[in-house]
Amino acid sequence: MATRGQGRGRRLRGVAATAFALAVAMSSEVAAQALDRSLGPLPPPRPPAPIPQASPPSANLAPAGGAIGPPTSLLPEASTPPQSALAPAIGPAGAPAALQSGPVIPAGQVALALSARFGRDPPAITGGLLWRIYADKPDVAGTFRLIKEDRTASPTIVLPAGGYLVHVTFGLANAVKRVQLRSEAVREVFEIAAGGARFEGRVGDSKIPSGQISFDVYRGSQFEPGEKRPAGKEIATGDVVLLPEGAYHVVSNYGDGNAVVRSDIRVQAGKLTDVTINHRAAVITLKLVSEAGGEALANTQWSVLTPGGDVVKESIGAFPKVILAEGDYIVIARNEGHAFKGEFKVEPGVDREVEVLAHALKQSKSP
Known about the structure:
single chain, mainly beta, Immunoglobulin-like, 2 helices, elongated
């Protein structure tokens, strides 16, 4: 598939970055569960923020039925400062300059300035972070008490002197540090090697409507042995999934029949990757009629089978729609105790009606 115009890509980059950052609010709670299981029961998270509609993705050709567009930065170009300006300046006393000019810290309290970036070298993460601060020792019940929660990109939190566990999530990626606060302000920078993926499905040049397709994402390649852990289930078209950097495979489910395509992808830190899954399938409408072109008979039970006899789809209705992968099929229609048989072929992108004549193969009463 050809890459879309670079001019349009530049205009969409800022929108994609905004959608990427805001989409975190929905998925960031999942990553926090990993720490919660090790720390013990914790208070429930706050409800997520709504996600804006993502921009149409770009696409390039990729193997295994998927097209992966060129990764774009998660930050708008204009908002990415020089690397030297990403972290606050450190004053002579070792505290961030913003802290030194801020309000007076009460006695016994210490300021903790937090920020995160995409790994060791990429720029700072400017949104979509969830910070949680816990006591560094469990209580009598064996759980780590949640002290503070914050969703700003670079919060400064004032806490009593002592030890803490600081946990940050960015989608399904997360990091944790043990921090000791004494008398001087402390700044901690977290490195989160994470990126994002956004999906759509196509048949030929036509985009599959979002209500007809969903995507499941699993860790590792589809060709690696062993059971795969899901990183995301039933993801809708245009949704951004934030993932730790690495290899994943996508299962694209077009309809609820046999139109399923698998494709390997790679998520890069600090990048939003658009993935297009290409299906060779079509939408088939089934009709049982008494004569060619006649009205569909109601209360018909349908079974769609492969030539080998495997059942692909069953349904009930006068004219059900089934989404089927390319190939040859046998259809059995049952109505008023009689069974009728037909055969048809599915060609990619050719949506059509398939009529089964009620007099074509009239059998005795079905058991």
